[in-house]
Amino acid sequence: MKIKSFTGKSYKEALDLVKKEFGPEAVIIDTEEIKGRECFVKITAAIDYDEDCNDRKKEYFASYLRSELEEKRDCWSENYLSKEIKEIKNMLMEIKSQGKFNKNIQSDFLSKVGIRSEFISPLLEDSGEIEIYEKISSEIKAGYKLSNGKTVMLVGPTGVGKTTTIVKLASFAVKIGKKVGIINLDSFRLGAFEQMRVFCQLLGIPFCSVNHVDEFKDIYNDFSKDKNIIFIDTTGRNPKDRKYINELRKIKDNGLPVEIHLTVSLSMQDEIFIRAKDNYQLLGIDYIIFTKLDEAYNYGSIYNIFKGYNKPVSYLTNGQRIPNDIQAVSPAKLTNIILGRGLIQ
Ligand SMILES: Nc1nc2c(ncn2[C@@H]2O[C@H](COP(=O)(O)OP(=O)(O)O)[C@@H](O)[C@H]2O)c(=O)[nH]1
Ligand SMILES: [Mg+2]
């Protein structure tokens, strides 16, 4: 309990002083009017005041503040602030590099589908995923129609599937009512002639063999007279063999209306065909056929080789079944295949 007297010129003035110091809880104990030269009023008031309790409260509050400050002290330290600023900076950098980040993902994706590194950067320039698709599909040329008057010659290394592809195409042409003939220039390889002869017998397709390119023109003119479409199967020899390339060249040099389809197997490294480009181009490649898609893990090589030769893709083959495993495709479908999003059925 605390007791104190307050004096004022009037009762009100003294009471105001009581209220001010003791608050509304104050209890008036005594009031006295003191008269003299000047009159004043003395009020004695008391308040229930637990000093100890107040001190405990103060101490509790002070320790609470101390612990709060202790806890937050790190927050205001220079290290803490610079760490925070660094984190914000990193976040901003990450947002800024989001574009670059996406580019890395796209670049990884394109190399996974087998597109060579030299072709990846141009595809990524100002490109999102849709733009990459659009760039490839607007760039790549594909599609072919077997029609009357065509002479289709397949060239390419041994074992890529030239003979098999010709048999597939010839059977298809027969099926749609075309008069077809096959000329074999593959007599160099033991058994190649026999293989083709058996196929032609089975399919009822006229067949002839040319042993030397110099005889070709005369035999061709005679053989093609009553036919709509002629297929020429060639020896698969090493494209580095310039003599072989020069021999084959004579066929086109003779002015015959021959379309040359370079046959590329996806089960072989595209490097082989890219390095052989100069030699094959001497032949005057008109189209590219990609074979053995069923044996490939990715299809980016189609784009790589297209970029090397810049010739339309006439056919894709995806198996050994004759005549089913072959088809011509549109640029859109081929782009999906290259990007691993669509498969040839
Ligand atoms: N898996 C698969 N094998 C094929 C394909 N095309 C051809 N082949 C096979 O490849 C091998 C060589 O084919 P061939 O036509 O003799 O090749 P060529 O030497 O270029 O005439 C044969 O066993 C064919 O059955 C294809 O698209 N997929
Ligand atoms: Mg062959």
Characterize the structure shown.
This protein has 345 residues and is an alpha/beta fold. The chain folds into 3 domains: 2-73, Dodecin subunit-like, CATH 3.30.1660; 97-136; 142-338, P-loop containing nucleotide triphosphate hydrolases (Rossmann fold, 3-Layer(aba) Sandwich). The protein is 50% helix and 18% strand. The protein has 14 helices and 11 strands. The strands form 2 sheets. An 8-stranded mixed beta sheet has the order 6-5-7-4-8-9-10-11, sandwiched between helices. A 3-stranded antiparallel beta sheet has the order 1-3-2, with helices on one face. Strand 2 (27-34) and strand 3 form a beta hairpin. Helix 3 packs across helix 4. Guanosine-5'-diphosphate binds at residues 158-164, 236, 291-292, 294-295, 317-320, 325.
List of distinct ligands in this structure: guanosine-5'-diphosphate, magnesium ion
Spell the H/E element sequence. Answer: EHEEHHHHHEHEHEHEHEHHEHEEH
* Gross CATH architecture of the largest domain: 3-Layer(aba) Sandwich
- CATH fold topology of the largest domain: Rossmann fold
Give descriptors for this structure.
eight-stranded mixed sheet, binds magnesium ion, Rossmann fold, 345 residues, Dodecin subunit-like, three-stranded antiparallel sheet, 14 helices, alpha/beta, 11 strands, binds guanosine-5'-diphosphate
Write the layout of secondary structure elements.
Blueprint: E1 2-8, H1 11-22, E2 27-34, E3 40-47, H2 51-76, H3 78-96, H4 98-112, H5 117-124, H6 129-139, E4 151-155, H7 162-175, E5 180-185, H8 192-203, E6 207-209, H9 213-223, E7 229-234, H10 242-253, E8 258-265, H11 270-275, H12 277-283, E9 287-291, H13 300-309, E10 313-317, E11 326-327, H14 331-338
Parallel strand pairs: 4-7, 4-8, 5-6, 5-7, 8-9, 9-10
Antiparallel strand pairs: 1-3, 2-3, 10-11
